[in-house]
Each structure stands twice: as C-alpha cells, then as structure tokens.
Design a protein that fits this description.
The protein contains twelve helices and 20 strands. The chain is of the alpha/beta class. Helix 2 packs parallel to helix 3 (about 90-95). It is globular and about 85 Å long. Bound molecules: pyridoxal-5'-phosphate (PLP). Pyridoxal-5'-phosphate (PLP) binds near residues 81, 104, 256, 303 and 305.
Amino acid sequence: MSKLKYERPYLKKMNTGMLNKSGAQSEFTPVTHIEEVAVKDLIKQYGSPVFVLSEKQIRQNYKNAVRAFNTRYPKVQFAWSYKTHYNNAVCNIFHQEGSWAEVVSGFEYNKALKNGVPGNNIIFNGPDKHSDDLILAIENDSLIHIDHFEELYLLIDICTTLNKKAKVAIRVNMDTGIYPVWDRFGFNYESGQAWQAINKIIASDKLQLVGLHAHIGTYMLSANAYGVSAAKLCDLAINCKSQLNTVIKYLDLGGGFPSQNTLKGAIGLVSTPTVDEFAEVICATILNAGFSNEDLPLLILESGRVMIDDAGFLLGSVLANKRLSDGRKATIMDFGVNIMFTSFWFDHKISPAQEASQFNEESVMFGPLCMNIDVIREAVSLPLLNKGDHVVVHKVGAYNMTQWMQFIAMRPNIVLIDTNNNTHVIRKSEDLAYLEQLEQMPEHLKSK
Ligand SMILES: *Cc1c(COP(=O)(O)O)cnc(C)c1O
C-alpha cells in the first residue's frame, strides 16, 4: 500500500447559500479533455506548457456572431482583427467562414494579402501606416481608415503622385458615456473635428470617402455605448448625404465585445452582455436613423476577443509547491506572464487536469520567471496539486499569442484541434537557433 500524502489541516469559512470568496466551485472540477483529446496526451505529444485551440469553438463563435447580426440587419460583414490572433491558420479559419481582414500595421497588411484576402476586403486601421504600406493599400483598393490630419495630407499627396483615388473612411472618437473616453485615435465627433475631416476629404477630390469607423474600446460591458456610437456615425453619414451629396457605403462599429473572462477585482459574478444584446442596440439604431432603403449602409464589425478567447487553452504543469513566509501556499507553474500577458487584466479560470483530492487551499500561483511580477493568479482555490500534475487555463485565445514575449523561456507549441479531433501544430515551439537567427557578432567579439 502506498503511503498517503500528508495534507496540512486547513480551516475554511463557508457561507452557505452565497458565493464564497473563492468563487464558483467549477475550479475543482477536473478538465481532462479539450474537445475529445486527452490533456495528458496533448502534453505528452507537444510538451508542457502548450497552447491548444479548438477550431470547432472558433467556427461556432463566428457563426453565432454572424447570426446575431444577420437576423437583425440586411447587410453585415465581419473583418477579423489580426492583432487579436494573427497565426495564419487561425486567420484562415475566419476567412473560410467569410470574414474580411482588419489590420493595424504594414506586416499585418502583408499577412492578410498572403492569406489570399482580396485587397478590397482588407481594412487598414491604426495611427502608424507607412508611406509604402499606404501605396500598397491604394494599389490593392483596400479600405484605409484615416487616423489623423497628418495621414490625411500624406494620402492626398500619395494619391496625387499615383494618380489614383484611395478608398477611405475616417475613424471617429466620441463620448459614449464610458470613461475614460478613447479619444487618442481618430477624429473627435463632439468638437466638430470629424466633420471637418470629412469636408477636407470631399473637397480634396483625391480620396473617395466610402465609410465611417469607430472602435470605442475593448472588453466593453455596456451595449448602450454602441447605441450612442452607432447614432453618432449615422448622424455624420446622413449629413454627408444631405449637405455634401455623398453616400456613405458602410459604417464600421469596430470591435470591443467582451469574452466571458473575469476581470481582476470584479466582485462576485459580473455578467457580460451577449453578442445578441450588442447586435440589438446597434442594428435598431441604424435602422431607425432615417436612411432611405437604397442608402442603408453596410454594417461592418471588427470583433476580436469575443470570437476566440474561449477557444484557447493553455496546458501546463506544476513545478513545485512552497509555503511563503506569511503562511500562504504558493504553487509554481511552468508557464508565466511571458506567455499569459492577459493575466495582468483577468483572473483566468484554472482547472486541474486530473482527479484530485477533496482538500483545497487557497494559494498564489506563480510562473517560472525570475521576477516578482510573474503571478498567474494572486489567489486561487484549487485541490492539492503535486509536482508534475497538469492544469488547464481557460479563455486565453485572445491576445496572448500576439502579445507574448520571449523572456527567459522560449514560446511553446500552438496546437489546433480540428473539427474531427485531429491535432495540428500551427506554430512550432521556439529553440535557440530561432532566438539567435537575427543576432550578429562583431568581428572583435568572436570567440577564438
Ligand atoms: C483591437 C481592435 C479590434 C478588436 O478589438 P476586440 O476588443 O478584440 O474585439 C477591432 N478594431 C480595432 C481598430 C482594433 O484596434
């Protein structure tokens, strides 16, 4: 008979009928499979830590969002936000589903082209578009969303030289009742700056104004804010028609719908509006704005995180347990904030990946990096985990695999589980050769 593991006695106050401080019980339920594939097999084959994505979940999220809007408005188009997750396999899932591309840099623009997205289905956002990127975008008939007056003048200049009209929209920022206002991107509505930009574009005759764009924030918890944003874009569009004889072909309401992650510091359960609730407010506002039937604009959405966050999992292993000097228990994992950037904003749900003891103790979960900010969860109530045990971190599909940093550790494999439960590496883990390939050694420092 094997010796039983000693578990330190622990007193825990329970408030019956209420959520206790550790939140819902779900963190104790083992998660042994992602889709139909066993976690232990994934780790055995692809190492630990490893990112795993469910293709089925991505497609389901996409279809759900499209349905929410298509049932409420006749002309809807989604554009995949590349910066949320720009692995080409992931982008191509969205493109197969019918999504355009939304990019915010020259390299993202080129990625979209290489993924076969037609130029006129690429939306080019962001404050830092270089001249050569703009030339490429104009030549490919892409939709260029102007961020500031400097860019507007640069575009007029380039179009004069190329003797070709660029298809443009302006990004509009506004007060939607959510503070702080994101007013650093685009032209302000309330001050009249947006209207001034519109007038300059139409007067210039070098640019074709085809759309209006707003992206009011990210992880937005208010559907109403989108009603305000839609109403202000509609107001500009209707004035374009009546005062400047210009029909605005599309309104782009940006991204920002929240995933079901838990924001740090949220007390209890904060419910996030569903895509249907956002769709209801946005579509009703545009339909009631007073457009004639033939002028009804195409509605574009650039949703990122809500489409992919819950399709991404991080599998990892316990390196060690410790008792901190203040008595708290600490668990050290083999993944840290280097590959989980979003742990700065969210208390990611973490589940054990195997049957575990009945006992639990609140512990702080650290990553393996040699720095103090490497904290995955400040307080998580999990069953006793031993060295070598596995965990599943939930809802890490958005932003982690683009914001990750190569610090101390190499970035791990990304594995896609397809709709038939076959697994594919869609990005290999990094190695020393990858890390050093761009380094150059001055002659005098070469080792003899
Ligand atoms: C980041 C970004 C998005 C996607 O935002 P989510 O919050 O992930 O939906 C969409 N549009 C623009 C302009 C962005 O910068």
